């Protein structure tokens, strides 16, 4: 059985993951509006990943005999100054999510909730991957500067990404 503190913290994280999903969907819509379908597709995959993260946590709360609660969250922004600003915001957001996951780990450790610590291990690893992925794109965008050809090449490359759901029981 999960403690009330852990249950509430996980439910807050579900809301944070759904916010992340909506942020990435808003970024996808913006990128579509400036005719960069590859970047938009990449963000759509991010959206799908974040929804799967929220559902994974939601299901975990239920599995631990807790009460999963769907909470509201703020609206994401809808405009950015550039492709670079989109990905810089995505990178900053992933760093924030890493902090939220680390706080959950700290809470689980403080409550000696070993099951939650094991469950959260997957998310810790996932955040390392998420930050590295977005940081690479930020760095590439900075390197190409004003090169339209470079922008379109990255757009084509990012458009190849597909959503791969986490394997069942992958923790």
Task: Tell me what the structure shows.
The chain is 74% helix and 0% strand. It has 171 residues and is an all-alpha fold. It has a single domain, classed as Ferritin, core subunit, four-helix bundle (Ferritin, Up-down Bundle), CATH 1.20.1260.10. Helix 2 runs parallel beside helix 5 (148-158). The longest helix has 31 residues, at 114-144.
CATH superfamily: Ferritin, core subunit, four-helix bundle
Terminus-to-terminus distance: 18 Å
Nearest-integer average pLDDT: 96
Overall helicity: over 70%
Total helical segments: 5
Uncertain segments of ≥5 residues (pLDDT<50)? none
How big is the Rg?
Answer: 17 Å
- The total number of structural domains is 1
Strand content: under 5%
**How many strand segments?**
0
Helix vs. strand class: mainly alpha
Run of helices and strands: HHHHH
**How would a crystallographer describe the biggest sheet?**
none
Q: What CATH architecture would you give?
A: Up-down Bundle
User: So what's the overall shape?
Assistant: elongated
Q: What is the CATH third-level topology name?
A: Ferritin
Q: Which CATH class is shown?
A: Mainly Alpha
Task: Please provide a brief summary of the model.
With 171 residues, the protein is mainly α.
């Amino acid at each position: 059985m999960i403690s009330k503190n852990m249950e509430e913290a996980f439910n807050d994280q579900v809301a944070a993951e759904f916010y992340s999903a909506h942020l990435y969907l808003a970024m996808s819509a913006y990128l579509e509006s400036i005719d960069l379908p590859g970047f938009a597709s990449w963000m759509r995959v991010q959206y799908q990943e974040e929804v799967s993260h929220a559902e994974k946590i939601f299901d975990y709360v239920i599995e631990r005999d807790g009460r999963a609660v769907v909470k509201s969250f703020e609206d994401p922004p809808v405009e950015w100054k550039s492709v670079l600003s989109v990905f810089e915001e995505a990178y900053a957001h992933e760093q924030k999510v890493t902090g939220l996951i680390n706080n959950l780990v700290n809470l689980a450790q403080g409550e000696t909730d070993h099951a939650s610590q094991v469950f959260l291990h997957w998310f810790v690893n996932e955040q390392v991957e998420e930050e590295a992925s977005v940081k690479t794109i930020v760095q590439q965008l900075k390197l190409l500067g004003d090169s339209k050809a470079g922008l379109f090449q990255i757009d084509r490359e990012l458009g190849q990404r597909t959503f791969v759901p986490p394997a069942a029981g992958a923790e």
